[in-house]
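note to self: dont lose this again. the chain is below, predicted strucutre after it. 261 aa total, dont forget to put it in the shared folder this time
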Amino acid sequence: MSKVIVIGSQKGGVGKTTTTLNLAYSLCSMGKKVLAIDLDSQANLSTCYGIENTKDLEYTIGHLLMAQIEEEEPEELEHYIQSKDGVDFIPSSIYLSAVEAKLRTEMGAERMLAEVLAPIRDRYDYVLVDTAPSLGMLTVNALAAADEAIITVNPQLLAMMGLQDFLRTVGKIKKRINPKLTIAGILLTMCDGRTTLCKVLTEEVTGSFQGQIKIFKNRIPSTVKVGESIYYSMPIALYSKKASAGIAYRKFAKELIDYEG
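---
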């Protein structure tokens, strides 16, 4: 049985999609079978995997969820699962927005993603779910289906402010819907150790949560290589083997595996 991990945060611009892309590739390069799911209607992860016109896709996570809502049998799952750089992924599109609106009126709506994943979990070691920067029904679905959540935090003041809101949501989901849900840890991303603000806020996170929530020791540095690799639809380690962020993501993947072990 795979480990379903949500990559989440209430704030945008904190490296959720970049983390999903690079963690998936790093785990795959270590011999793990990985499925990445784009659960954001903006479809940024799908774009990272090289899909240019996501709106034209006929087989997305949105279509799988809608089939579940309507209690219809979807087409063969293989139609929905694509692969790149050794990683399987299920793309998204703007259609997911309509699905989210539909979820708001459905009984048992928070369990739809869990039902979708049930037939395919056994194929993988890890299922990584990239979520939207909100606490809407799609994020609730992700957390209801997950074993763990990794919270990405950019050590900037506004990103820090969203951390407590996300933690409260995880707590509510655990209490009311998914008692097995845990927080794997907080991953600090886009870190520039040269700035005073970064140092102060990093110390604040560590001081506030040390002993309560795991703070991953490996932090993702801020580097232009990240943006360049996204532009070319590649994980950082493939784009530039010596890039500090790529090396950091590989170390983070190993830390995660060791933590799971």
